Amino acid sequence: MCPAHQNGVIKNQGLAEFPLDSFADHTHLIRSLYFENNALQSLPADFCDHFPSLSSLTFSHNQLQTFSPGIGKFALLEFLNLSFNRFASLPDDFADALKTLQILVLSGNPLFKLPDCVCSSSVLQELYASQTGIEDVPDVFPADSQLKVLHLADNALCRLPPSVANLTQLVELDLMGVKWIESQDSKTSLTLAAFTTFLNGNPLLERIDKKVCDISSLLRCPYSALKLLLFTFARLRCTK
Fold this sequence. Notes:
The chain is 15% helix and 9% strand. It has helices spanning 3-7, 94-97, 116-119, 192-200, 215-219, 226-234, and strands spanning 32-34, 56-58, 79-81, 103-105, 126-128, 149-151, 172-174. The protein contains six helices and seven strands.
């Protein structure tokens, strides 16, 4: 491997600054950067100008609070892992990155709110946003959503939005640790009918262990069964 490619994978080194100079004239060849478990607090201001071929980027377990301007310049970016940093918000131009992004990992950041552009993406296939302090999920999931994996565990959620019924491609839903509110009409925005539509059109049902629950009987229950239904799904990890 050339020095630039060797420098593209640095983990557990306590690195405090991103070594942009070490990539010399090879930045256009780099497709993946992996800088996990370091001490990065910031990135070079022109970081996004140097890696036109980047498709995978990992900065998990650092101390980043902001991202360099121009993340949308990564025209080939498909995988982005920013988990367990200190991000309180995402860049203003983050919507540009979502034109190509298929997997986004934001878990472990104090976001408290997911930007609409994340949930409204029709390209994103996997979204990991556990332990982010969010209380609500934007009601913007599109009808053509391609989302297959959605992790919202250990958040302060009190409801799911009606547009969750559009997630007909979903095969993995993680709501572990979410304490649902009492299922009263005045407190929840997701009706049983909407959630039933989501379930009936979703391949997730085909992977449920019938020993865990009898979904068919739950769906025949009145609206009061919504809390039990959501709690049941909160402890399911369904895989292919």
